[in-house]
Structures are given as structure tokens and as C-alpha cells.
Design brief:
The protein is of the alpha+beta class. The chain is built from three helices and six strands; from the N terminus they run αββββαββα.
């Protein structure tokens, strides 16, 4: 099952999101206005553009998820989409990203504009931590990485 396609179809029904191309060339991206909110890498992975403030707020919950991968200093989180509950998690994070994007537009960054690339640009490849309940997959004992 292509869980990324299932997740993208669900998210494309949201009135706040519109289809767009991604700067990293990954294919399908969904935007809120001019702000990219989520894009998909392959059949089982999505990147969600939160903000550093939103990631800090959600970090205790994110750190407990084997499906979420964090990068130090990045405004993006990667969600591994292996099972249906991962799609639910993605939808929750996209909702948080929409809230964060609305706040960011209302409160511009005093440091000036900056471009935080998706997880596939400008940073080492993410360490994938798999669900232990998916056959043939292992977990490293850490739920996220920094």
C-alpha cells in the first residue's frame, strides 16, 4: 500500500491546502498560500514544515514517536508512513504546521528571511528508525535523532 498517496489524497481535501511543486524536487507538495506545508518523498515518507517554535512546543510528544525524525535547527520534521496511525499523526502535524504558518505570517522573523531546506537538502541523510511492529523492520532504541 502506498501510504504517502493515501495521506496526500486525504490532505488534498483540506480547503486550506493547495497542490504545488516542491523546491527540493520531490514531487507533490501541499501549500497554504505561498508557504509549503508538506511534501512527500517516495511511498512512505513525508516532510512537514513546522517552525522551530512549534517543534519546541511539540518536542516532548514528537520525541516519543518512532515515526517522527527531527533535525537540530531545522523547521522540518520527517514522518515515516508505515501504518494508518502514521497518517493520522501526519494529519495532526500538518494541522500544527498550518497554525505555525499563520503565526509566522502575523509575526515576521526579526532575523530576516531565510530558507530552511527540506530534509533532503543541505543536511546529512536522515537516520530512519522503523516501527518494531512492521515485519522485517528493526528499531534502534532511539525514537528520534538530533
Amino acid at each position: 500500500m502506498n501510504t504517502a498517496r493515501h495521506a496526500s489524497e486525504q490532505l488534498m481535501s483540506w480547503p486550506a491546502l493547495s497542490e504545488g511543486r516542491t523546491p527540493c524536487g520531490s514531487g507533490l507538495g501541499l501549500n497554504a498560500g505561498s508557504q509549503e506545508i508538506v511534501h512527500f518523498h517516495g511511498d512512505h515518507e513525508a516532510d512537514v514544515h513546522l517552525t522551530r517554535a512549534m517543534i519546541a512546543k511539540l518536542e516532548p510528544a514528537l520525541a516519543g514517536s518512532t515515526a517522527v525524525h527531527l533535525r537540530t535547527g531545522s523547521e522540518w520534521v520527517t514522518v515515516r508512513l508505515d501504518i494508518d496511525s502514521d497518517i493520522d499523526l501526519l494529519a495532526t502535524l500538518v494541522s500544527a504546521a498550518l497554525q505555525a504558518a499563520t503565526r509566522a505570517e502575523a509575526e515576521p522573523d526579526v532575523r530576516g528571511p531565510h530558507r530552511d531546506p527540506c530534509t533532503r537538502q543541505g543536511s546529512p541523510a536522515p537516520v530512519i528508525i522503523r516501527h518494531p511492529d512492521v515485519p522485517g523492520e528493526e528499531t534502534s532504541g532511539r525514537s528520534c535523532y538530533r
